[in-house]
Amino acid sequence: MRADAVEAVLRGLRRAGVSVATYLPDSLLKELYPALDADPGIRTIPVTNEGEGAAIAGGVFLSGKRAVLVMENSGLRAATEHLARMGLGAGIPVVMIMSYRGELGENNWWAIPHGITMEPLLNALRMPYRIVREVDEIERAVVDAYAWSYSAYHHSAVVLGGGLVR
Amino acid sequence: MTSPAKGMSRYECMKLLGARMTDDALVILSLGGSVDEWYDAAPHMRDASLFQQQLGCVTPEAFGLAVGLPHRRIVSLDTDGGLLFNLGILATLGNEQPPNLFVVVWDNEQYQSIGGPRTHTAAGRVDLAAIARGAGVEKAFTATTLEEFDAHCAAGLAATEPYIVVAKTDGILQPGIRRKHSDGREDKYVFVRHVEAIEGVTIMGPSEHN
CA-to-CA distance for A93 and B64, rounded, in angstroms? Predict the structure, then answer.
């Protein structure tokens, strides 16, 4: 992941008032995780699966603090059960930042399912999302995701793809 | 002739726990029969309790709440089925060591809300407290009597490290109690407004234009 993209994510999270990040690390965003760990304004919580990370983020919402769940887009599959119950059932929102594994340009056979399943799952969960491939669009996308999720009380996602992560 | 039920009455356990709590503490609880039981056993905790239907989410959500409100006691009322759905949270608690989180696991060895098929704890080999200790939560115990359970509630509500008690209960739903009528969405609003009031914060505020 490009260094200027990492900085843009951190700027967006700061502007959105985020103080907790749950994550299950992946390779495309690998530079982002230590940067989150090093940010003095953010407590990071590594998790064992993305559903757990989503549920922890939902609990943080209930406290009045703001959280983000950071992961590969394959994590959306692991988290769908938790996201459906919290979002569609109770209106407890989770904002996610995920890498776009499996988009055009993917050169790993095992990542193809991640690209194929991501958008149908986002749509099945009625989650709006923005796919970002330019650095100067990242900060605004993160801030916009929080604005929407704290109006709708439902999940939203920023997907980082293209040259940002390769 | 059927054998007598094993384990404690969950409802009696809840009354003991509720008697030790005020609505300064916050509770996240699991799905199933424990919802209506907690609603009746601890009526003073209704606004301070988030009633949800989220298998595998309960203790993670309670941990997130504990992270956000480190000065406040948070209680997770989880179940054997719910915790088995996401055992990974025990490893996360072991690493993160939240000082303000007390977890009660109602272990009736069955999926009670769908009629009682057995969970993995029913065969007697799976020990949730031992799993928790192995995951790094040193204060993890099993209670089989009301006296033991009450003592663990006293200790868990005062602990300065994560504390888990697995309560072996009999699987008998308390008869004749009042059903909760609200859904998860209404319950969330009630809970959030309570947190806003006791914390003096805004969680779900006004839109830009009303």
Answer: 13
